[in-house]
Amino acid sequence: EIPVIDDSSESLVQLALDVFKDLQIKRKGSVSSVKMLLIWPNPTTMKSGIEAFKSVPSGLFEHIELSTVMTVDNRNLNSADVGVFLAPSSSQLTVVKEVGDSLDPRPLVLFNPRWAFEEEASFGDLSSFV
What we know:
Residues 2-124 form the DUF1995 domain. With 130 residues, the chain is an alpha/beta fold. Helix content is 29%, strand content 15%.
């Protein structure tokens, strides 16, 4: 977990941009970078994220909002090499798991989740997922 300065959308977007903008992950034996699907917690944060990531070379990042990820065309899920959930809350864990199952076996990153480690024991069946 990487702490943010505050819980604002701006802080989350800036942290995500700082971490991912220069990150160059390549598949073994490939010259092309992996495609990352950034899954934002709400429409407002996603809009800010899209605007901030315009400075990054296109094609490396796709953006989608968590509540719509399973209801829209799955091209974004199918084309992603890595899924990154940005600041998901514990109330969103069921959807996070569904998306994770759809991405399997590709890597899934929970970036700055909005729960404490101590809370994970109370997640029931989902505690084994996180």
